[in-house]
Amino acid sequence: MSVVTNTTTIGAIEAPSRRNTELAMLGFAVAIPLFAYLNVGLALDGKVPGGMIGYGLGIGLLAGVGHLVVRKFAPYADPLLLPLATLLNGLGLVLIWRLDQSPRLIARATNLYGGFSPDAPKQLMYSAIGIALFVAVLLLLKDHRILQRYTYISMAVALVLLILPMFFPARNGAKIWISLGPINVQPGEFAKIIIAIFFSGYLMVKRDALALASRRVMGIYLPRGRDLGPILMVWAMSILILVFETDLGTSLLFFGLFVIMLYVATERTSWIIFGLVMSAGGAVGVATFEPHVQQRVEFWLNPFAQATWDQSEQVGQALMSFGAGGTLGTGLGQGNSDLIGFAANSDFILSTVGEEFGLAGTMAFLLIYGLIVERGVRTALAARDPFGKLLAIGLSGAFAIQVFVVAGGVMGLIPLTGMTMPFVAAGGSSVIANWALIGILIRISDTARRPAPAPAPSPDAEMTQVVRP
């Protein structure tokens, strides 16, 4: 007896989308800030704060909109990126609201500006705009590889964004803002994303040339002269930013991002060594003649010097806040980080975390940031295309460098840079740009984790003859 059968291709097994996991994590990401909000109200006034319901509905609505859009338009995306960003954003709103209640800050603002305007409502509005941009990224960016078409256009846009602040007045010694009436924008926050797009497209094309064997000196492969053009251009741009805008943070972020992506693209350690030497040499050179950079270094080395206490008081107060927090902290609403002054809820907001959450809470915050970076690196490893790999690692690297630069400056590990802690510090540009960054990472992770479609069965499938006795 013989049976004639045709062979067909077995379809791919459907991969889990993990959207329910994301929804459960979002529940915790909303509940934890809501509990922190309750704690602040009880500590300050001994009663439940009146705006608790409104705050809970606001942050819950933003999280819910983000989740529904991801579930619909990026169903296979990483399930932790959105909850982690929501948790940081929610806790940042609580810390800003806590500082808004400080009598010292209210009195200081009234004396200097004739009135006090709370920052928490504005930060909630900026968070809503950030979520709107997050949604727009997922709706409009169907495939992250489309960004590769705009490699050189993105570089031109990034240069314009970095140069524009030079033509506006300095604020607190640095030219990092564009002021248009009541609207203040920090273009460097958006430039880091656009620069990562340029580097990804450029290095994807040039990585073979940059990875060629170079001259070996003392056991280290140094780049060839013809390959030094890109890194010298980026190094010169970072130095120009440091000279004309006196913005140490953006300069470090810009150059550090390129070195990280260059190392990932070429797998040559010599690029890291060469980049660090150039970065350190440029910073030391600028510090010898730029007074603002010299002042930042002096405050870092001697934050408690009596002669400069009027200018370095914020740095000294921040360090004392960490010391006062101890291991477990003083408790939400029971610290004195408001003594730092006008930048307590922006540049120095990590000091409030260190004092009121303690060492344990500070490590928890840094761990959340570390998890976002880890999920970004994991997305880069899973990406199927080289452009997606480089873009994911570039965005994750930029995020990590910014966290290190801000945390290191506030804790006294490096000179203060004036950048803001992503999602936590007060500031519209920062929270909006970082929500866009998370949106791009989610789009890349959705493409990377999406199961490949099963090939359609061919009508001319091979017929096989199976003979059974």
Strand content: under 5%
- Distance linking N and C termini: 6 Å
Helix run count:
16
β-strand number? 6
Q: Percent range for helical residues? A: 55-70%
Main β-sheet, in a few words?
2 strands, antiparallel
Helix-strand sequence:
EHHHHHHEEHEEHHHHHHHHHE
Order of strands in the sheet with most strands: 1-6
| Residue windows where pLDDT falls under 50 for at least 5 positions | 1-13, 461-467
Rg from alpha-carbon coordinates: 25 Å
What shape does the CA trace take? globular
Q: What's the rounded overall pLDDT mean?
A: 84
Task: Give a brief outline of the structure.
The protein is mainly alpha-helical.
Describe the structure.
The chain is mainly alpha-helical and 469 residues long. The chain has a domain at 145-449. The protein is 64% helix and 5% strand. The chain has helices at 19-45, 52-73, 81-100, 103-113, 120-140, 151-163, 188-210, 228-244, 248-266, 269-287, 291-301, 309-325, 349-356, 358-382, 386-411, 428-449; strands at 2-6, 178-180, 183-185, 215-217, 220-222, 463-467. β2 (178-180) and β3 (183-185) form a beta hairpin. The longest helix has 27 residues, at 19-45. It is globular, with a radius of gyration of 25 Å. The N and C termini lie close together (6 Å). Residues 1-13 and 461-467 have low confidence and may be disordered.
